[in-house]
Amino acid sequence: MTVISRNPADPADVLVELPAPGAFAAADAVERARAAQTGWAAGGAAARSAALSAVAVGIEAASAELAALAVREVGKPLAEARAEVARTAAIWRYYAQAPYEATGAVHDTAAGPGLLLTRRRPHGVAALITPWNFPFAIPGWKAAPALAAGNAVVLKPAPEATACALRLAEIVEKALPEDVFTVVPGAATEGGALVSAADVVSFTGSSAVGRTVVRSAAARGIPVQAEMGGLNAALVLPDADIAQAAAHIAASVAGYAGQKCTATSRVVAVGAALDPLREALAEALRAVPVGDPAEAATVCGPLITEAAREDTAAAWQGLSVLAGGNVPDAPGWYAAPTLVEKAGPGHRLLREEVFGPVAALLPARDLDHAVRITNAARYGLVTSVHTADLGAALHGLDRLDTGMIRINAPTTGVDFHLPFGGAKASSHGPREQGRAALDFYTSSRTYTLAPAGA
Predict the structure, then answer these.
(1) Contacts by 411-414 with C-beta closer than 8 Å and gap 24+?
(2) Beta bridge mates, 447
(3) Could you give the CA distance from residue 172 to residue 168 in angstroms, rounded to a whole number?
(4) Could you give the CA distance from residue 368 to residue 237 in angstroms, rounded to a whole number?
(5) Closest CA to 91 of 415, 428, 390
(6) How far apart are CA 239 and CA 232, in angstroms?
(7) What is the pTM of this model?
(8) What is the pLDDT along the chain (454 residues), one digit of tens a residue?
């Protein structure tokens, strides 16, 4: 197999074309990482902290280059690419302090002399399988806590983000001992080999692949987390600021062409909010700047592949289109931000994640009905609730089967120092980011210390 990565705004521009290394090379990378991990973990907190800080500095120094590379390879609009690179540096700097945190606690025994200790230790080698849509931030928020805790890392990026991953590796490898951080390009063969050899696995990507990763890791008895699909809803109550809600939702539908697991796919208008929201949201989506991701004003760039564009266009066929519903005549793989209505309960837009700039508008009689509509999806990553009544928002919050809930804010956007993850088919295993990530990349041990002769 050949790994090929193209510019989605100009498909004739090929960034990467190289032979996939294969399963044996992936397994060998894990073994080399395992040999290097012992010294990395034993080197002490100061060494690990300094190395992660150096990565942050390296990313900042190369920020313009990295942003331009994300624009070119994955079609990320320039403003978002710059923000992602800045966030990536902040993630590495945040976890650079983690090696100094306590790794356990001391307890009294239940009876008699002695002490009980708990201590968290690294698993060994972390296999990270990452998507193309956040080519720097997602590898960062997986690798930085894994390394901070004393693990070695082998990263298998999506083929569409190979150039970004290889450039990131150049920066990271300069700050770390040899083989502590390795990138293995490729696809399913290489990813499967890593899952079969590593000591802990973190995956972000499609639901189908995620389920396979979880089964394989579980069969080996190793820790695994998987962040998969989202079919996120925005609930708009009658007392909401409709203009603000429409602006937030339009950004969540169309930003980066809807290619985020946190993008808004369903818009649930409660009662009297339906008519004004229909008009305001359609107008907001029509006003979204679509075009070359290298232009600073662009919000909605191309989809990642031609197949992704065709899949998105097929999703709105046969529905009542309120905005968009067309494919611009441009060399790249573009689709107009689209809002549809009258999608029946079994329609694909209400069952599957399309991963494009399209959303369905749905009416709800009241908040209870809106919650039932939201919970009807098999996914439960993030929900936004737009209302002026905090009491009403809180009333609905506990009944939402959703991992993250955002009030009067877009569904997109997360804080890296807090846990990230969803419910139901959206996520499997412990949460990512924040302190939760450090817990995932370590195992807890309990020590009993009894005095000699006791």
Answers:
(1) 411/232, 411/233, 411/234, 411/252, 411/262, 411/263, 411/264, 411/382, 411/383, 411/384, 412/251, 412/252, 412/255, 412/260, 412/262, 412/263, 412/264, 413/262, 414/262
(2) 117
(3) 6
(4) 11
(5) 415
(6) 21
(7) 0.95
(8) 899 999 999 999 999 999 999 999 999 999 999 999 999 999 999 999 999 999 999 999 999 999 999 999 999 999 999 999 999 999 999 999 999 999 999 999 988 889 999 999 999 999 999 999 999 999 999 999 999 999 999 999 999 999 999 999 999 999 999 999 999 999 999 999 999 999 999 999 999 999 999 999 999 999 999 999 899 999 999 999 999 999 999 999 999 999 999 999 999 999 999 999 999 999 999 999 999 999 999 999 999 999 999 999 999 999 999 999 999 887 899 999 999 999 998 899 999 999 999 999 999 999 999 999 999 999 999 999 999 988 877 777 789 999 999 999 999 998 999 999 999 999 999 999 999 999 999 999 999 999 887 6
Residue with the two structure tokens 């973990």 = 41
Among candidate residues 73, 80, 160, 227, the one labeled active-site is 227
261 tagged catalytic: yes
Given 261, 300, 353, 432, which residue is catalytic? 261
**What is the token pair recorded at 426?**
């959206």
Structure tokens at 337: 């931000």
Q: Is 173 a catalytic residue?
A: no
Q: 181: which strand partners?
A: 153
Exposed e or buried b for every residue in 120-153, given b needs 16+ CB within 10 A? Answer: bebbbbbbbbbbbbbbbbbbbbbbbbbbbbbbbb
What CA–CA distance (Å, rounded) separates 332 from 195? 35
* DSSP string for 125-162: EEEEEE-SSSTTHHHHHHHHHHHHTT-EEEEEE-GGGH
| Cβ atoms within 10 Å of 212's Cβ, excluding its own | 17
What is the residue type of 20?
A
Half-sphere exposure in the Cβ direction for 313 (13 Å, CA):
15
Q: Which residues, in sequence order, are bridge partners of residue 323?
A: 339
The end-to-end CA distance of the chain, in Å, is 64
Q: Which amino acid is at 219?
A: A
Dihedral sign (CA 109, 114, 117, 123): negative
CB 262 within 8 A of CB 241: no
Contacts of 55 (CB under 8 A, 6+ apart): 92, 144, 171, 172, 175, 176
| Cα→Cα distances 150→25, 34, 258, 445, Å | 23, 11, 36, 15
DSSP labels for 379-429? EESEEEEE-S-HHHHHHHHTT---SEEEESS-S----TTS-B--EETTEES
